[in-house]
Design a protein that fits this description.
- This protein is of the alpha+beta class.
- The protein has two domains: 47-94 and 266-356, no CATH class; 99-265, no CATH class.
- Helices cover 22% and strands 29% of the residues.
- The chain has five helices and 18 strands.
- It has helices at residues 6-42, 99-112, 169-182, 188-191, 279-287, and strands spanning 71-74, 87-92, 120-121, 126-131, 137-142, 147-152, 195-203, 206-210, 218-223, 234-235, 244-249, 256-261, 267-275, 292-295, 302-313, 321-322, 324-330, 334-339.
- Strands 3-4-5-6-12-11-9-7-8 form a nine-stranded antiparallel beta sheet, with helices on one face. Strands 1, 10, 14, 15, 17 and 18 form a six-stranded mixed beta sheet that branches.
- The longest helix is centred in the N-terminal third of the chain and has 37 residues, at 6-42.
- It starts with 5 loop residues before the first helix and ends in a 17-residue tail after the last strand.
- The model is unreliable at 348-354 (pLDDT under 50).
Amino acid sequence: MASLTPTAYYARLAIKYGGMALIALMVGRFTWGRVVAYWEATHPKAPPPPDVAFGVLPNIRFPTKFQPAVSYSSEFPTGQVPTLIDRAAVYLVPAKKSPLLALDEAKVVAKSFGFEAEPIQRSEELYQFAKESPLPATVDMYIYWGVFILSTDWSKDPDFLTTKRLPTEEQAIDEVKSTLKKAGLLDTDLINGEVKITYLKAVNGVYRETVSLSEADFIQVDLYREGVTETTPGYTPDPRQGLVRAVVSGNPKMRIVQLEYYYYPIDSNTAGIYPLKSTEQAWAELQAGNGYIAQLDPDISSVVVRRLNLGYYESFQPQYYYQPIYVFRGDNNFVGYVEAVAPPTQLPTLTPEPPA
């Protein structure tokens, strides 16, 4: 066989080593991308300098439910209270609806649920819609804010639970979202937010949690708002309940037998940057009993706290601002909140009154 000419020889070398260099470049680029992504995830970029755009903020109004006396100890992964960012955005919650339009808009929403009759006014803001067919049902709606509770008295039908063809989890979620979309109530951050499923059994007309679909009479669907960032989700007064909670039956006569809607839109384009308390200060406040216990198993008097992160408070009551909170988690299903915005940029002041 004739030997290769110098040109062919060097061409083959170029192809060989060029291919090796290309592979090395691709692997290096992939590896570098992973390194950069990991660094950005573990070292989030700080927001712009604080501008305190809204001035002094109202304190967060946590529910006034009973707060057990609890002593705290910590076992954080590093052995110390984690250090988080020192500032965060506060977002505007648009003001309540115009009195001239609120009732008409409420009637449109109620009609989408099958309530045709005129409502009864229970207070300045509270209107009640009612119907008797196919089952007795009511919608109590706070028209200025658009929040409501739909309740169905399915126990009036003694055969209601005998017809039980429960949907799958995916079907239940789709039914709830379709119902909200039909009413014009499915915003994008609800579409993309977390969803939780709970199986419920009827016990003397009351819902009780059960462990499997085979034992369930209903499927409970909780919808949460998508976090304003990947690392700052929203937290409701009860972390187990979403801003929207629906109870779905297996009876075609009435699929959604209960619907609680506490969704308040936020204006993500209107925000101010506020300084935050140090995590050590927040931990001290929690230990002093100045936090809010959102979740804890019964009869627990001491808690080991193991995790801390920043989130946003999702009130079931009206609020003008969407504010950050420190979220502590620990044993015995403990979840506790401490306001994150540093004083004196947050002082006691008037807040929107809750619906009457």
